[in-house]
Write a structure and sequence with these properties.
By secondary structure, the chain is α+β, with helices and mostly antiparallel strands. The chain has one domain: Roll (Pnp Oxidase, Chain A). The protein has 5 helices and 12 strands. The strands form 3 sheets. It has a 7-stranded antiparallel β-sheet with strand order 3-2-6-9-10-5-4, covered by helices on one side. A hairpin with an 8-residue loop joins strand 7 (114-115) and strand 8. It is globular, with a radius of gyration of 19 Å. The N and C termini lie far apart (38 Å).
Length: 203
């Protein structure tokens, strides 16, 4: 027997939404950093984001409900950075999700420092994972949320996360994922399965 969650009644709508977002896990979670017109940097975590195209590389993240400062800053400046959070930074991710005044520097408040952007004028939190430096492509309103599309102009990566050949070292890079509610998971192991050729697959 299975429980079914539907969107068609007020009584079960909250449980339906909860089940959808907690079934699609783990979701990568990262900080989006922006700068307002006064030069104040803003930091907010998002787990509703994804890569879209490979070349040129583009990404999208969804702004729903809060995080209005992030959206306003992106629209005004046309730039933002997406920085992956690492194992051990779960509490920092949770704390920077707090709805504080736009004048508050969230990174400084939780003990993070800023690293200057290279391809864009927006900084990113130092000591975290790879930072995707993006320019705004467009913002679409969809189902009550705003979808922010960006093109990645550059990627800033700490040397400690790289192999000698310049690729990400999967044994050193441990990003975190968002589970349900206040729960996170840590990516610290991999299983490798090469994609077979058509002949190997059919054989």
């Amino acid at each position: 027997m299975s429980q079914v969650y539907c969107s068609n009644t007020d009584a079960d709508h909250g449980a339906f939404v909860w089940m959808v977002k907690n079934a699609i896990v783990p979701r990568p979670i990262a900080w989006v950093s922006t700068v307002d017109s006064a030069g104040v940097a803003n930091l907010a975590p998002f787990s509703y984001f994804a890569p879209l195209t490979m070349d040129p590389p583009t990404v999208v993240f969804a702004v729903s409900g809060g995080a209005k400062d992030t959206l306003a800053n992106v629209v005004a400046s046309g730039e933002f950075a997406i920085t992956m959070a690492l194992s051990g930074q779960e509490e920092l991710i949770a704390r920077t999700a707090s709805a504080v005044d736009s004048t508050v520097d969230e990174a400084a408040a939780v003990g993070l420092s800023w690293a200057a952007g290279v391809s864009i004028g927006v900084p990113h939190p130092a000591g975290a994972g790879p930072s995707l430096e993006c320019t705004l492509v467009k913002v679409d309103e969809f189902k009550g949320s705003h979808l922010v599309f960006g093109e990645v102009l550059g990627v800033s990566v700490d040397d400690a996360l790289l192999r000698p050949d310049g690729r990400l070292d999967q044994d050193a890079y441990h990003p975190i994922g968002r589970m349900g509610g206040a729960t996170f998971t840590r990516v610290d192991n991999w299983v490798r399965h090469p994609i077979p050729s058509a002949e190997e697959f059919l054989g």
